[in-house]
Amino acid sequence: MQKRWIPFYWVCAALISGTMGTALASPLYPLYQQLWQLQPSDITTMFIAYMAGTLLSILFLGRLSDSLGFAKVLRAGLLLVLLGVILSALAQNAFMLSSARVLIGIASGLISTSGMMGMLQTSPLPNEGQTARWYASLNGFGFGMGPLIGGVVAQISGGSVWLPYVPVIVLTAVVLYQMCRIPFHAPSDPKPLDFKPRLALPAAGLGRKQFYLAAGGAFAAFAMFSLYASLAGSFIAEFLPWHGPAVSGGALALVLFLSSATQLGLRRLSLAQAYAAATAMILIANVMLVLTLQLHSMVLFACSVVATAMAHGLTLMAGFGKVQEVTNHHNRAAVVSTFLVSGYFGAIMPVIVLGWLADHLGVSRAVIIYCSAFGLWAIALFSGFVQLKRRQRLQTV
User: Which SUPFAM superfamilies match (predicted)?
Assistant: First the structure.
């Protein structure tokens, strides 16, 4: 029995260690900004470098596991993470760090796809539903532990920008070594290598319009997460009496942990209830953050963090559920890719504008404008949702 669990445990460990490096640099950005005399747009560019790498990986490398097997792809992802984190620790300027972040982003895409496949193939759990819940929990746990550990180590070490990477380097090296020792089975019917992006929309009609709303929600939720991941350390210092890498890293970790907890705890909600709640949380998160910057309230900031986390979790839950509902096995994978691309564009394009605004208007004003825009976006999404529900009821009468 124990031997059956060992491969599964190490695939889970690979997923955790592979995702820890992804957001580890976020609480360190203010330190880099001071060390290298960077503008806010330089910080957002370093963050976007990771997201761009992940997007490229999802678009062009998402089917490697079908051809090479999950084990080879997972090992390659871990190796890229290890190289990226080492380069991050050794970085001497923004270009070196951005290049390392691209590597980590590519690795993140590889690990996300191969890790899920690996868990399904090695899982001794009784059904795929339980395995999928493990995957969601471990994925969020790994993403959250990275900035938490990085922020705490940076705070304790007095602002070191290389020491926070050491725990992740050691852990990833150990997991990679163990993954190379385990003889995982190769795919019995490997598919030919295919690097062409496969994107698609649901069939025209009500389902496609529902998908547009789901994708719009993902765009907003990813944009809010990216705000915290890129500039939280900069704007937190303006209204909290105590701040630093541990605070910004803890805030980002809380968003990721609560996002996973939301998906698990509220999984019994209907898709309509989940989407309505998601749009409400997007609006509340933006309003709370604007009020935080105006009133300098720790309570309002905590409410904004919780609302952002719930919006992120509910949006993913409702979005993937809707994709499942409006697709079939012929186009599901391509539509899922389109949904994820919508989210990652939300993590890239608005943040570019945010960095430009911060350079010219200051961080606080830029964040207020950013939040105001996405507050209106949330209202528009909810209005579209209500109209579609009304049309759906009329069609069934």
Answer: MFS general substrate transporter (SSF103473)
Helix (H) or strand (E) holding 349: helix 332-361
Rg (CA), the chain: 21
Give the residue among 229, 247, 250 at the shortest CA–CA distance from 238. 247
In this predicted structure, what is the pLDDT of residue 241? 64
Domain ranges of the chain: 1-183, 197-397
Are 1-183 and 197-397 the same fold in CATH? yes
pTM of the model: 0.88
Q: Which CATH architecture has domain 197-397?
A: Up-down Bundle (1.20)
Closest by alpha carbon to 169, among 289, 82, 279, 238? 82
Query: What is the domain class of 1-183 according to CATH?
Result: mainly alpha
pLDDT of 20 reads 92
* 264, two tokens: 């698990």
303 C-beta neighbours (distance < 10 Å), count: 18
Nearest to 46 by CA among 379, 267, 352: 352
Residue 338 in contact with residue 198, Cβ under 8 Å?
Answer: no
Locate 76 and state its tokens: 């390659």
Q: Which residue ranges in the chain fall short of pLDDT 50? A: 1-3, 397
Pairwise CA distance, residues 57 & 197, whole Å? 10
